[in-house]
Amino acid sequence: MVETGTASTRVDGGVRSIARAVEVLELFDVAHPIRQLRELVALTGLPKTTVVRLLATLESLGLIVDRGDSSYGPGPGFLRWVKLADSLWEVGAEARQIMSGLIDDCGETVNVYIRQGLNRIAIAQVEGTATVRSVVEVGVPYPLATGAAAKILLGGVSEEVLRDLVAQRSDLQLKPLRREVASIREAGYAVTHGERELGASAVAAPIVAADGRVIAALSMSGPTSRFTADRVGRYVDAVTAAAREISNAGLGPVEVFL
Amino acid sequence: MVETGTASTRVDGGVRSIARAVEVLELFDVAHPIRQLRELVALTGLPKTTVVRLLATLESLGLIVDRGDSSYGPGPGFLRWVKLADSLWEVGAEARQIMSGLIDDCGETVNVYIRQGLNRIAIAQVEGTATVRSVVEVGVPYPLATGAAAKILLGGVSEEVLRDLVAQRSDLQLKPLRREVASIREAGYAVTHGERELGASAVAAPIVAADGRVIAALSMSGPTSRFTADRVGRYVDAVTAAAREISNAGLGPVEVFL
């Protein structure tokens, strides 16, 4: 279960070439550290000349390495930011331990999501134990409109953000969204099935700062076939309890940004 | 001693907006994890409207976080590359230990540089012990034409790369450069003073693969005032010995790219 919204579709206006460059860079991951030029052309859907030009630009910036046989990898230029981002966006040991405890109890993938503009991004993840499991990528923007974690995060936003989100998406209406978000906020958790992706379910609860603000969402997700009526009560209990524990312990260094 | 060639001056043709975006991102480092908008405008020399547009684009891609008070930081979007870049560009424990030994002996900053196109990039660093010490940034492209590490790396390139480099820089001529590079290759080390930056000196030696190719340069650098005649012999001995040791031990996982 992998959802990959491409970077360029996430940009409203903005500088298209930057989005395209990020889109190319996003095609490299732990499973695909090296890509052939033809793969990059096929996966981006961009003309070959455009991809070649993007790769040359990224290579000159140290962000792509040309291996010389029409295959490419992420360049050493990333090193300067990964150390920085890793330390800035670090989720503390205590919070991670609570996440791991949740996996021990329920076996499904656990993520901490934060809001970034009109997106949500997982900043920490512990993967589930089953073969068929939820896999989202840490650091990749996903829609703020759909999924349990999104609904929890929306409980912490201003009316202005809700309006911007509705303006961006033709499938949303302000009044019902506002009502749903308020109800979820009152309930203290959200359960969604197939809202973001067919066959995927999730349970999420808010992580709050000392001043009561919703700063993140703790989410447990997996195949709908395992998020059954007889299990969901236990999942909701476990996720809300863990989110409360993390709220008390603090999220760690990353909190200065939230 | 920090040299910061800006990203956009390193792009020949290419997509300028990508280079500008990288230039903005490069302004964030461990010493400056947060930057004010006015700093970003001043440091890039770009119009404020351009910087604001770049920041908005980068924010929508998760690469910049807007802290809401006209201050910005690197976004959580970098997290997706952390595991990848770290594992791909990893210099092995044995090589790092040899680098640390060099610091114990001489006290000056040690870097491993690799060539990327017409640039060189430090992929590993151990900082020196003195207050005034050489600081280059890991992952940032520096010129391939100047400095001891550059001259060592040029000993491993094809005639074509030399020609491209000369074509790019009006201050270089092919014949003298070729002669210098061949001499340095024969000597097995390079010593430079103020070549890349006034007041900065360096000693470098080649790290070679099992097949004899120059894959990296081991460099020790610091203020010219400490790279004196009575010390340089010891420095050259120490750096060439350590480079030989690293060549025998191997650079670690990163070697597959070199």
UniProtKB/TrEMBL annotation, chains A, B:
Domain of life, per the record?
A: Bacteria
List the Gene3D superfamilies hit by this protein, alphabetically.
3.30.450.40, Winged helix-like DNA-binding domain superfamily/Winged helix DNA-binding domain (1.10.10.10)
Gene Ontology molecular-function annotations: DNA binding; DNA-binding transcription factor activity
Q: Which residues form the HTH iclR-type domain?
A: 15-76
Keyword match Plastid: no
Occurrences of domain IclR-ED (ranges): 77-252
Lineage of this protein's species?
Answer: Bacteria, Bacillati, Actinomycetota, Actinomycetes, Pseudonocardiales
Q: Which PROSITE patterns match?
A: HTH_ICLR, ICLR_ED
Q: Does the keyword Transport apply?
A: no
Instruction: Quote the protein name from its UniProt record.
Output: IclR family transcriptional regulator
What SUPFAM superfamilies does the database record attribute to this sequence?
GAF domain-like, Winged helix' DNA-binding domain
Q: Name one GO biological process term.
A: negative regulation of DNA-templated transcription
Cite the entry's keywords alphabetically.
DNA-binding, Transcription, Transcription regulation
Entry-linked SMART domains: HTH_ICLR
